[in-house]
Amino acid sequence: MARKSRKRPNIDLLIKPSRDTVGYIRLSVRNTDPTGSIENQKLIIEEWGRQHQTPIMHYYIDNGFSGTRFDRPVFQQMIQDILADKIECIVVTFPG
């Protein structure tokens, strides 16, 4: 009977590949503050990515939806992508 190899497994195969880091942006229909615009939120998220050497691969943007509800269409798509294990990190901004 042949003896089985007792070599250690290839460690590189055990490391889970990195998935996307994404940004989530929401802008309410009631927002009148220009500093909270979609463009400004995106700039803040991009700067965070540069500071942490983490490229933001995709943005989920809900424009004109209240933050008090979770039935926002793009938010729901992001949840589905999380459940499908497509997202590693979500970067958001908070009103200051």
Can you describe what's shown?
It is flat, with a radius of gyration of 20 Å. It has helices spanning 11-14, 38-51, 73-83; strands at residues 20-27, 58-63, 87-91. The protein is 30% helix and 20% strand. The protein is of the alpha/beta class. The chain has one domain (18-91): 3-Layer(aba) Sandwich (Rossmann fold), CATH 3.40.50.1390. It has three helices and three strands. Mean pLDDT is 79; it is low at 8-18.
Query: H/E order of the elements?
Result: HEHEHE
- Average pLDDT score: 79
| CATH domain class name | Alpha Beta
Tell me the total number of β-strands.
3
Describe the secondary structure blueprint for this structure.
Layout: H1 11-14, E1 20-27, H2 38-51, E2 58-63, H3 73-83, E3 87-91
Parallel strand pairs: 1-2, 1-3
In brief:
By secondary structure, this protein is an alpha/beta fold.
Key structural traits:
96 residues, 30% helix, alpha/beta, single chain
